[in-house]
Amino acid sequence: MKDQQLTSLLNQMTLEEKIAQLQQLAANFYEGAEEGGQITGPMASMGITDHMIENSGSVLGLSGAEQVIAVQEAHLRKNRLGIPLLMMADIVHGFKTIFPVPLAIGCSWDMERAELSAEIAAKEAAVSGVHVTFAPMADLVRDPRWGRVMESTGEDPYLNGRFARAFVRGFQGNDLTGDVSRLAACVKHFAAYGLSEGGRDYNTVDLSERQLREYYLPAYRAALDEGAEMVMTSFNTIDGIPISGNVKLLRQLLREEWGFDGVLISDWGAVKELIPHGVAEDEAEAALKAIKASVDIEMMTECYVHQLPALVADGQVDESIIDEAVLRILKLKQRLGLFENPLRGADIEKEREVIFCDAHRTAARELAVKSCVLLKNDQVLPLATEQRIALIGPFANNGDILGPWSWLGSTEEASLLAPAFEARAAAGKVTVAEGSGIESFTEEQWLEAKAAALEADVIVLALGEHSDMSGEAGSRSDIRLPEAQRELLQRMKTLGKPVVVVLFNGRPLDLSGVIENADAILEAWFPGSEGGAAITSLLYGDENPSGRLTMSFPVSVGQIPVYYNHFNTGRPLHAPGADKRYVSQYLDIPNEPFLPFGFGLSYTTFSYSEPILSGEIMTKDQPIKVTVTVTNTGNVQGEEVVQLYIRDISGEVVRPMKELKDFAKISLSPGESQEVSFTLTEEQLRYYHSDLSFSSDPGQFKLFVGPNSQEVKERDFRLTLA
Question: Between the N and C ends of the chain, which has fewer C-beta atoms within 10 Å?
Fold first, then answer.
């Protein structure tokens, strides 16, 4: 269908039919779904009529080729103009084959595998009839109390932007119309949702526009520059205005300044939530503010369908605004090829072949290997095949390793630690005991675990959070391991055996009670469907850990937010000659995070030469080439993430102590050296000034190269703009 045909279709629609296109309803409103027509509870009070359902534009949370085909065909029989439905769902880190959570994927620093994970998720979802995924999440995160940090790739705007682009490429491919194995991507949550006060979900955000543009908007912009078709609004306020009614942020910045003409959708219920936020007196005012802010689709509340007809009739809303929104939705359906092929990729037979196939599981296992981060190793790992292992803990044989937003993932079909250990170790060398529950601990569990541990050479403790402890609505004020597991670990340490801890979690943890009692720690996050096999291959040294943290681990919750790219103060802690007390510090803990951004250990070691610069003066036309030689000084092959940071010594506004500007992931054999080069340009030194202009300042800069944000070698250079 061509653009002029879409305009003709729009002109044939009644006002009520147009407004219904702006309504997104859950699957059980539709004939053909498993529970279609069974509307109970709060949904029953929405006042959604059959006419509204027949003319609605999109469905939330429906999948399975058979169901999607049934719903779409039933809808087209009833819809007067034959306008197909859009099928949307949260396909965040896998459909049926579950990959590690996005925070873990971030720790891989591997754009190709990240893109592949999204491509596989799209392939499985598309063959099941899904058209749009609510991903990637490009929120910058600095507060691990917030449960949704697991859905981001970390605390750095540059790296988040790289991953956002990779995910969009994976989901959408190069031909969204012709390639029915791809999905339209919806970047979220616009904007700055990761800054929710107190790390509490749905909470207030307050920051300057300069900081918004400098740190929180770049990753969303990167996703849109890569071609993301949709944007989802966030639940929070900015400058006192909830996003779903925020004209300045949505219509002026996103639409007019950035030129985004794709579909903008609210998060679940966010339009009606303008009322409890306190900026709308009733549903009519909520609908008015959201449509004026250019929110095209209202997800799972009914303000538009009930209130927009009257708002148009009395002149408060010009029908042309509704036409714009409807046309954007119709254009997305056109780009997905739904007018010509309303069933698109849904294929019952192919679904059985594609979903959770061996190739997809292999890719999930490989990414899980790259995503795990070795946090500590006092010469305990890797394990030897002949060692007797006591595998203990609530995650020793637990399928709850997929993590939040693993919708259709199967815990029963996941690769668990216990079977993976038994398959890898020598016969009879692994004993498994629960030891404790996630939040409970009994003497009976302890006695069983103690007996297993006393017979072992090495104790492996599989500890962590239940998946419900993170993700949406998973905010926690105490981000230590639950007390029951800390008690188990402490008792195990008293047995005098080497203790290896494997952590399953969706956020950086306060490792108090863990770090001092463990001889080695592997951060596995929620590793997905192939987690057990991936972790076992790392623990036995079949694979060498290469993950690097993309979110800092705090010493304690009292430091939060703690992140590498922070500002200095007028009284920095280590200023020469400073009074030891009257500096910016805590009296009881360090200022620095326990584990910094970029950190991760390996079974080998690497050395860095002093960085060599092509020159000490940079101009707009003359970049600086940075070269460093990295050598594998250990005994096994390993991967290193070489990281490049800069610091602007004197800006028009305060600049961060370090900013990541580039990185390279390299693989080296024992004794091998490789020269790694980066080209640093004037454009990379630009930032938002107090007047919101975006430019660089001449003057002195520092350049840092190293394996993480703290252990770096530095050089100086100057930028000259004359």
Answer: C
